[in-house]
Structures are given as C-alpha cells and as structure tokens.
Design goal:
The complex is a heterodimer of chains A (49) and B (297). By secondary structure, chain A is largely without helices or strands. Chain A has one helix spanning 2-7; strands at 28-29, 46-47. In chain B, strand 1 (255-256) and strand 2 form a beta hairpin. The chains are: A little secondary structure (49), B mainly alpha (297).
C-alpha cells in the first residue's frame, strides 16, 4: 500500500522526523520505540564494556 | 490586533476594483462571490443561509464555468470531471514532475536544512517505521529519455501553459540525471528543469497555522475551505500498525473534507487486504508497484 500511494504520487514523502532520546559516546544497545516512553524497555538496556 | 492587508478597509483590500465590495465595503464579499456558486464558503448557521450577499451579483455556475477561465469551478476540484480537471489529479506527467522535484530536492533538504532532526526519507516511503514495514522499493518512477530531439517535446500552450486536452499523456517528464552524485553537484539545475519541461505553472501559497486552523467563515484559507492541488504537511503515525496509518488512502479513511484522496486501485487493494488481513499482513509492504495502474485522463 505504501508503494501504491507513493508510486501514484498521491503523496510525496520528503523527510521523516525522529526524536532524540539520548546521546552516548559508548556503544549502548537500546531499542527505543517512537510509540512508547523513552524508557519503556529500560530493563533491556545494556552497555558494552 | 493588526488586520491582514487583504481585510484593511483603508487599503484596496486586495481587490482590483475598489467598488467590488459594494457600498458597505464588505471585506469578504469578493471571497463569497468566488465560493458560493461552487457551494462552498457558506456559514450553515447564518441567517439567510440559503444565500449570502446580494443575489444580483451571482452568476449561474453552469454558464460562468464554461465562459470564463477565471470563473469558480463547481464542486470539488479533485473530482475527475471534464469541467473541474486539475493537473495534479488528472495529469500523470505533472504528478511525476512533482515527485521528481521531491526526489531531487529531498537529499538537499535532509542534508542541509533539517539535518539530523529530519533525515530525508527513502525515495518512496510514507511508512518509515516499524522497519519491517519500510519499503525497499527505491525506484524513482520518472522516465528519462535520452537523445531525443526537441521536436518530440509536447507543444506548450499560450504563455507556456498546457492547453487542456492537448495530449497530456504523451508528455514525459525528462530529467538530466537522477543518480545521487549528480543531484549533489547540481541540485538547482536538476530541480528546475523538470518544472519547465511539462510547461506547468504553479502558485505557491503559505498559510499560517493560526489562520489555517481558525474558524473564520469568511476566510478561504481555513482548513475547512482551503483547497490546493498539492499541499505540504506534516503527519504523525500515531500507532505502529501501518494498516491503520495507510487507511487514509482508502475509501475507509481516505477523505479530506469529504473528498476522496486516493484512486479506485487503492480501494481495491484495501478490499483485498481486509479479506486476507490475518494471513497477508506481514507482506503488506512488499506489494510491487508494477501492478499499479497509472491514473490517466
């Protein structure tokens, strides 16, 4: 359906706007969802040493 | 509060003829004269709601729409009718041109204007997340013709505009290059050429949000009356289910102010998906565009 709407020029996507939830220099493994709290799965966060 | 220039009584109120507003200098009269024959712009709760404004100034919609190109178009302009055809809805090359302009300018917008706050979306992705629903189809559907003589170009009408019904579908939007590197080197050139080739003219209008979402019945720029061929907007995917999000392009939810947004092929696809929803749902983003019939006038 996405290809149909875009290919038929019913809509022309330009940019998408993600949200910054945090910033780290170390390698962190976070799975952040745009449809949940920023710390919605806080229990699964970990940081590679 | 400072009034917009068009509504200031001491000015020309944006009219060409000062006397058009009548003895009372009704600021919105010109707007009403344009809107009411088309059935729009009326306040349904107003006194005398059957007609607003002096009756003698109203011309019948049937005669005015055929005799003058500036006469108001009856009914919604997105309707695929001969009397109200719009290039953005009826003419494939115009829509391809708009898509090409978006494809040419998108990397520049994402890299230089919005930066990391809003990266450029993939060439044809209205659904950007969840990732498994993101389309991998990066094809920009603009056909490029190489080595064609200029005589093959579609003849333009007066002042460079298209003549209505002058073989629109034979025209192709041709671009110099569409690969990533040439766009980076020549963004201005590659974005201006496709606009000239189909010989289309456009008028850019920007409406402030506080005006657009206001409820002024006399203002044609509010969201209940504003109408344009192409509108740039920001929308939010409020849930991770892409089927709900894409419902705006189907007959279920695809209506803007009572008008249909998408075409019949979208509805057919939506009907197919609604019957096979449970089994085919993971494949929702893998529909090939080759099955897409191109809308033609």
């Amino acid at each position: 359906m996405n290809d149909l709407a875009c290919g038929d020029q019913a809509v022309i996507p330009v940019v998408y706007r993600p949200r910054v939830a945090g910033h780290a220099t170390a390698s962190c493994r976070l799975r952040i969802s745009g449809w949940d709290n920023d710390i919605g799965n806080l229990q699964d966060w970990y940081r590679e040493a | 509060m400072r009034q917009p220039a068009a509504l200031r009584h001491d000015r020309d109120e944006g009219r060409r003829r000062r006397g058009l507003g009548g003895a009372r200098r009704a600021a919105d009269r010109r707007v009403r004269l344009c809107l009411e024959p088309a059935g729009r712009g009326r306040d349904p709760a107003a006194a005398g709601k059957g007609r607003q404004g002096p009756r003698r100034d109203h011309r019948p919609a049937a005669t005015s729409s055929t005799s003058s190109s500036t006469a108001p178009i009856p009914g919604p302009r997105s309707t695929a009718s001969a009397r109200a055809s719009r290039p953005s809805t009826r003419c494939c090359p115009i829509r391809r041109c708009a898509q090409a302009l978006g494809a040419a300018g998108r990397p520049q917008v994402g890299a230089r204007i919005t930066s990391t706050a809003a990266p450029a979306s993939r060439p044809a992705n209205f659904v950007n997340n969840p990732e498994r629903f993101r389309s991998k189809n990066d094809e920009v559907r603009v056909q490029r013709r190489q080595g064609e003589p200029d005589s093959s170009r579609r003849p333009a009408g007066r002042r460079g505009r298209r003549h209505p019904g002058q073989g629109r579908q034979e025209a192709e939007v041709r671009l110099p290059d569409l690969d990533q590197h040439s766009r980076a080197r020549r963004p201005r050139r590659s974005s201006s050429r496709p606009a000239r080739r189909p010989a289309s003219t456009s008028e850019l209008k920007s409406v402030t949000a506080s005006v657009f979402f206001s409820s002024d019945v006399a203002n044609p720029d509010t969201y209940t009356k504003f109408y344009c061929d192409i509108q740039m907007y920001t929308t939010t995917m409020t849930q991770p289910d892409p089927e709900t999000f894409m419902n705006q392009f189907t007959s279920v939810g695809g209506r803007h102010q009572g008008e249909q947004v998408a075409g019949p092929q979208h509805h057919a696809l939506a009907a197919t998906r609604s019957t096979t929803r449970r089994s085919a749902r993971p494949k929702a983003s893998s529909i090939r565009s080759s099955a897409r019939p191109c809308s033609s006038a």
